[in-house]
Amino acid sequence: RVLHNILPRLRSLRALSLSCYEIVELPNDLFIKLKLLRFLDISQTEIKRLPDSICGLYNLETLLLSSCYDLEELPLQMEKLINLRHLDISNTHLLKMPLHLSKLKSLQVLVGAKFLIGGLRMEDLGEVHNLYGSLSVVELQNVVDRREAVKAKMREKNHIDRLYLEWSGSSSADNSQTERDILDELRPHKNIKVVKITGYRGTNFPNWLADPLFLKLVKLSLRNCKNCYSLPALGQLPFLKFLSIRGMHGITEVTEEFYGSWSSKKPFNSLVELRFQDMPEWKQWDLLGSGEFPILEKLLIENCPELSLETVPIQLSSLKSFDVIGSPLVINFPLSILPTTLKRIKISDCQKLKLEQPTGEISMFLEELTLIKCDCIDDISPELLPRARKLWVQDWHNLTRFLIPTATET
């Protein structure tokens, strides 16, 4: 009733917010009589498409569409919004962008843009200078060479703080050097805070990924870059706090190159959380022994079947949480040498694992232990974890004795 009967009568309306309402669609003629509207907020609704009549709002200055997860497309004649200054399309994961954004001459702020390369050319991305917040560039396998990538003018986009680059389809490439050149030209401005690279098809990464001049970069994710056989010198990124490396099938060894060149600062001096996942060929993790990872609190190793704990840096001075999942080569878990800062351990799908009785202080400080599908363990005694508050045990087929301290939750 409000959409069909009441709103069309408010011809002098300047601002309208429908945010968070349970709206799936808007009447096609809703905006025909709202010519004076300057502010429109449809964020966090279930709308799938906008009515074409919205393109007749010549006075509209702000259009907010963030978190419209079902929104699939924008009207084809959006360029008619000649006074539109602020457009927020962040967190609209299904949105396709058929329009040439450069035609919106008054646009000053565009938040959350997602460029589908192929539907939109790199030139169109290069012509948009008012991008803010997050920027996604997908289907990058359609970029032919360095000259085409240059047209995106990525280094000029100084208001972008989150960049997502994605290649789709086959992981194979005709020329690895061309792939590296393309990624090299997609280097963001030094103001970048978050970078995620998915499906990159080159065999190694360009140098900018480990440039210590990225003083604001705090989060980096490398995912399904299956052809890469080495990792960049990420240890020299001065303020990196979160690092996720996943699906890197070509990595067999994490070498000293990973830590970067020598400097007065310790490698990974700001890193708080480190994740390695789905790396089927990874066998060796080389350590410098020079105080790397000085403040690392969380370490996750998941589905790295060829890696054994002997090469994992578990004696870290600040480590609080350690997860090891899907590592069949893990036979012994050395509780006695773990740091006393460690509060939480999760071990899952380690079929050959046996727990040694701790001889040091670790058992006195550990608060939470999770053990899942560890069939070689048949005995849990109170001496194992006298101070633990939580103990989670699941899918053990050979457990014969289970004695726990009275203060422990199970």
TrEMBL record:
R13L1/DRL21-like LRR repeat region domain span: 122-248
Matching InterPro entries: Leu-rich_rpt (IPR001611), LRR_dom_sf (IPR032675), LRR_R13L1-DRL21 (IPR056789)
Pfam families, per the entry: LRR_8, LRR_R13L1-DRL21
Domain of life: Eukaryota
Record Gene3D superfamilies: Ribonuclease Inhibitor
Protein name listed in UniProt: Putative disease resistance protein R3
UniProt lineage: Eukaryota, Viridiplantae, Streptophyta, Embryophyta, Tracheophyta
